[in-house]
Amino acid sequence: MKTLSPLFLFLLLISANSFLPPPPSASAAYHDYADALAKSILFFEGQRSGYLPPDQRLPWRANSGLSDGWTYNADLTGGYYDAGDNVKFGFPLAFTTTMLAWSIIEFADVMPPAELRNSLVAVRWSSDYLLKSVSQLPNRIFVQVGDPNADHNCWERPEDMDTPRTVYAVDAPNPASDVAGETGACPFYCDFDGYQDELLWGAAWLRRASSDDTYLNYLQENGKTLGAEDNINEFGWDNKHAGLNVLVSKEVLESSMVTLQSYKASADSFMCTLIPQSSSSHIDYTPGGLIYRPGGSNLQHATTISFLLLAYANYLERTSQSVNCGNLDVSPYALRSQAKRQVDYILGDNPKGLSYMVGYSDNYPQRIHHRGSSLPSVKDHPAAIACKEGSVYFNSTGPNPNVLTGAIVGGPSEDDEYPDDRADFKKSEPTTYINAPFVGVLAYFAANPDFS
């Protein structure tokens, strides 16, 4: 492992500078995408760790994790809790930060000024923490804070947590390219798909940020070896290949970089898998039209894929191109239509008539799997609530007392059913990496509310 990870260098550079799935059962409705955008960004303030600023907009949260890093004589305060627990996992946090940043890079020109500022603040909150994680000790990257087993055995507010704030780190002599490439510990965030995609992902972002030919050469020379041409039909914190191919394709399309053509071919192939009418379609959908992959937290796939559809549509439109899917040509409009279907499903155009974004519309999940949201706030209940004392709130059938505005939950099952059960974490738990790509997606539709 090198002393400076690609993510670290990327953060420094950033700091310096129509084909549709099956129709839904519920009738389509008007959506206030601008409102959803604002709420999707506000969610991140509910995930903050560390000292909260005076302009904190979710008042039921307070300071937490103030001793993080002390065991290493390091300051690891700040960052985000990744989901409904109180652990800071570096691997998914890095992906969250990247997708927030990409949302801004791709759609800043159409964001309302206030939400552009709020989204930049959200990126800064996590990037400041990630910079701490790679810069405090030579040749060491801190990748996680908090003992996940102890944490998951308790139901505590982050402000009260007394579980071990164990710090996990990787050192230069020991291989950990997946984390270093996008600064995770098993069994909670195992990199099942290997480290190869992270190496290419890191190189692609460094190329995008710096225009340095060193990274161009790396992409040219290592793409095939590291699996860039693999036929991957997902994109997320674990597998970056589809996002990598879309990102690199921008340079192929807009700068005629023919030596990277294989990445564009893979991006085209991925887009074709998303179109039901394409002969190469092999993405599954629920009866109501939601992209579906088994394993839980399904909406992470819907939000990330929607982002890629819109980003690729932008690149194609700027160069007056379409995607050849063999039996049909797919236009930028068709890709955007596909993304819009996913967005509208999440916001309520689904068989349940339920918004899967908390606080959006009058009908949304009330019992999300989230400690801070489900326990009384420290302002309403100043006395500490110990590890097992929180169980009564976990087991309650009542709604969460604190609304985690903007949180997108894991989502429904393959039959479009959603029980709104706090204990069913695969469906009811929100995560930062579900929301992050949705910021860019909502920014596009907020600027184009009449797209149809």
Automatic annotation (TrEMBL):
GO term, biological process aspect, one: cellulose catabolic process
InterPro entries from the UniProt entry: 6-hairpin_glycosidase_sf (IPR008928), 6hp_glycosidase-like_sf (IPR012341), Glyco_hydro_9 (IPR001701), Glyco_hydro_9_Asp/Glu_AS (IPR033126), Glyco_hydro_9_His_AS (IPR018221)
Keywords for this protein: Carbohydrate metabolism, Cellulose degradation, Glycosidase, Hydrolase, Polysaccharide degradation, Signal
Enzyme Commission no: 3.2.1.4
Active-site residues annotated for this sequence: 369, 420, 429
Signal peptide: 1-18
Similarity section: Belongs to the glycosyl hydrolase 9 (cellulase E) family.
UniProt-recorded name of the protein: Endoglucanase
